Amino acid sequence: xxxxxxxxxxxxxxxxxxxxxxxxxxxxxxxxxxxxFNPRETIKKGAIVKKIPMDVLRPFCRxxxxxxxxxxxxxxxxxxxxxxxxxxxxxxxxxxxxxxSILNDGEVGFGSTEYxxxxxxxxxxxxxxxxxxxxxxxxxxxxxxxxxxxxxxxRVQTDVVKNLEIDVPPLVEQEKIGSFLKxxxxxxxxxxxxxxxxxxxxxxxxxxxxxxxRQESWNIGQLSDLISVKYGKxxxxxxxxxxxxxxxxxxxxxxxxxxxxxxxxxxxRKGTLNNVMYVNGAFWSVDTMFYTEMLxxxxxKFVYHFVKSKDLVSLNAGSAVPxxxxxxxxxxxxxxxxxxxxxxxxxxxxxxxxxxxxxxxESKILVNTRDTLLPKLMSGELDVSDxxx
Length: 389
Fold this sequence. Notes:
Layout: H1 4-19, E1 27-30, H2 31-34, E2 35-37, E3 48-52, E4 68-71, E5 76-78, E6 83-86, E7 97-99, E8 109-111, E9 115-120, H3 127-135, H4 137-145, H5 158-162, E10 165-168, H6 171-212, E11 219-222, E12 227-231, E13 240-247, E14 250-255, E15 260-268, E16 277-285, E17 289-294, H7 300-308, H8 326-330, E18 333-336, H9 339-379
Parallel strand pairs: 3-8, 13-16
Antiparallel strand pairs: 1-10, 2-9, 3-4, 5-8, 6-7, 6-9, 11-18, 12-17, 13-14, 15-16, 15-17
Helix pairs in contact: 3-6, 6-9
């Protein structure tokens, strides 16, 4: 049953749809007329600053979930409000485009040399409109077609994107389009924030029950006593479908069939090792991830919070490139509580996980609605000029 707020949201969307009309006065402009490409910024060599690595970006997701702090030696530079787009295959095709919002006022961050950075020209373009324009077929399709280079390392020709001729609405209408689409991403971001808070609560409950109240009578075992570690598989040849494909940054795409069904803990083999994930349902895991099968009931969430509490990078710190192995995972020692306490933990946190799952489902619906509206708004097929936002 819909809540009152959900009914209000549905009414607002219906009203906005009802008032969408014919295209207003738009003018044809080169993309470089409304946006600065890779704008000049200065960062001192060796300065420790915020970095956004490529593997942090999530497909077709506006917000950047986290950043690292590293010594600057080169890369693209950006400020809050800028849009970053991957220019290399397959990252561009997978939708790695985001709007920077993790910096402080006046702060400059940096990222991969494989980004193109777009900045809305003041008084000419709206930053939110620009972000959604970069995400739209109006820009994505010509950018993908422009790619040149050896197989697997093809890159966008930036000049082609600069010279794209685009129908652009007046600034006031840009702001309305940006605000209209932004509302969807703001709700998705709110759902993410709620889910993060619920997960932190579950982690605190785990710590209280299994660390602070640890019993001497508990057996010491290994993680291999509880799980079977499996390798993910390549997904590139799979057709599109409804089953999520998980990589180290989260969901990458949806495919025709699952690799595994049920509760599982996903652990990166390379890259961002500490980005451990809990999944409950049918999914596919990429070949740079481990997924796990549970050997006992009522332990998946316990295993997730146990692994989440560890610094996985430090477990293979001696390696030139830190990576995770089955041997390291299987040998992780832990106290194994009795069945009664594991069941108690399951009963306490399960409602939190159900709420997180519902939020995730709602976000998926919002994404689908946003992506349906996006090309129609950016092409002028639908008009928001008469809408008061």
